[in-house]
């Protein structure tokens, strides 16, 4: 019997360990109960804050409408009070927006289709910032990999299976990018206008290119394997129309992704400075175009961007010619040509609008310098015209 129970001293030590474990586990259960209770309180407070935000937004709109009625008949002293009130309302509106960004919100249509009703809102700013940094790292890393892969395929075009992997990689990249961007928008990132839909269009283009190439024939070569011609199948092009456009597409993919990588580094530096000065929100991300917040010193990026847009137009023209050729029986060249035309037009219009808005912010002397620098009229011609219109001014200038 004593052999079964063991040494009494060892049993006493075991009882002490079990008692200590039971005590610590009870404390753990209480801590978990406190956590559950606190989570319920947090959810209740979040819902209360959502109701308050909706209420105060309506309140501010009502106050603005009342001020608009009072302003025309107000005295000069009252006008000053109205101006101070408006500034106060604007500050409170911005505060409401910041609080709203920190609260959970219902997913948009795209996230509801992809993820369902899963809550993708982060509860604190640190988690949001870490996810944003993860997005930026993912974007630059995969862009660099795809650009190098495209350059490799441009020079080595004998193994068609690599083309399948390349197109699948692009589809996966843009699908993942759109999902991550929607999660960032759900957490306060301001992605607006053209750039909010640009990657969706690129996803459709990548999917059409994948279908055009007929990747299933390379990934599942059952028929050719049965006839012992798998090696021949892997080394032949998918179609004549695809073969004509392939090298041009690979070089374009290399160029456009290199431009994106270059933009990434310059935009990250610019955003870092603006965030440090408090001029940009912490959740702003890099985009594939030229933005108003970019420094005027980064205007040289426009040269590469406009070259990329010209490349897109050239791609559209090349695909249009292929689609009209008698040997082309596929529908994909025409569709991809339309997509390139649409993206090039959207990119060009958006960029020109940004340049126009940045020019409007420049002071008159800076605008005059740029106008003189890039004018098509020679300086001597301008001087001649000026001397004819203002002879007195030209004579005084000569005397000086």
UniProtKB/TrEMBL annotation:
It is a multi-pass membrane protein. Its main location: membrane. This is Transmembrane protein 120 homolog. Keywords: Membrane, Transmembrane, Transmembrane helix. The lineage of its organism: Eukaryota, Metazoa, Spiralia, Lophotrochozoa, Platyhelminthes. The chain crosses the membrane at residues 195-213, 249-266, 298-317, 337-355. It is found in: Membrane. The keyword Nucleotide-binding does not apply. InterPro entries: TMEM120A/B (IPR012926). Belongs to the TMEM120 family. It comes from the Eukaryota. GO terms for cellular component: membrane. The keyword Transmembrane applies. It comes from Hymenolepis diminuta.
